[in-house]
Specification:
This protein is mainly alpha-helical. It has a single domain (9-183), classed as Arp2/3 complex 21 kDa subunit ARPC3, CATH 1.10.1760. It has helices at 11-28, 43-54, 58-71, 84-88, 92-112, 117-144, 148-155, 159-179. The longest helix is centred in the last third of the chain and has 28 residues, at 117-144. The radius of gyration is 16 Å and the shape is globular. The two termini are 15 Å apart. It is found in: Cell membrane.
């Protein structure tokens, strides 16, 4: 069972959370809109990198901070949007799913390690694709008033790009771990 009191963020943890929040904000700005509702961005790449390198719960904290900054009005969401309307709008489920998915991905990467790109990729597919889609697509259907089947078919446009982001994340994590082995040797769980 998760006990928040056992997870104490060091100044280094807080700095890394802030750095990955800023990285995600920068990656979210360039957008391509195909469907007219949900833009394609590199925001999820930021989520994946944060979760995979920071682990549980700090990767999720980075994504949660990013979402909080959007809600309070900073224009750092996809395409430079900000405000509560971003979270309550059609794509808000993807942001909520990103927090949950980053927590799951971080936990899996902590458990499986950061040296095998296939396991890193699998952790990201489970946490930041399956979970994000499972929360984001029904939310999108609910907020737009369209059926779930229509939104599932819409969701398929994101799969190729997200798989490319998974590969990039796995390669970056393995490279960072080779350059900075202390990341791979972090003990999973409470520090």
């Amino acid at each position: 069972m998760f006990n928040a009191a056992t997870y104490r963020a060091t100044p280094r943890d807080l700095a890394l959370i802030a750095v990955f929040t800023a990285l995600t904000a920068v990656l979210a700005l360039p957008t391509v809109t195909i469907s007219g509702i949900a833009p394609i961005t590199l925001q999820t790449l930021g989520f994946m990198l944060a979760a995979s390198l920071l682990g549980f719960p700090w990767g999720g904290a980075s994504v949660a901070l990013y979402v909080l900054l959007i809600v309070v009005g900073l224009p750092i969401g996809a395409g430079g949007r900000g405000g509560l309307a971003v979270l309550t709008g059609p794509t808000g489920g993807f942001l909520i799913g990103g927090i949950v998915g980053a927590l799951v991905t971080g936990w899996l990467v902590d458990k499986w390690g950061r040296t095998n790109p296939i396991l890193i990729g699998l952790a990201n597919v489970i946490g930041l694709m399956v979970i994000v889609y499972a929360i984001g697509l029904p939310w999108l259907g609910w907020r737009t008033g369209s059926g779930l089947f229509a939104k599932l078919t819409l969701g398929f446009q994101f799969v190729p790009g997200d798989l490319i982001k998974v590969v990039i994340t796995a390669l970056v994590v393995v490279t960072v771990v080779r350059a900075y082995p202390a990341i791979a040797k972090r003990a999973p769980g409470p520090r």
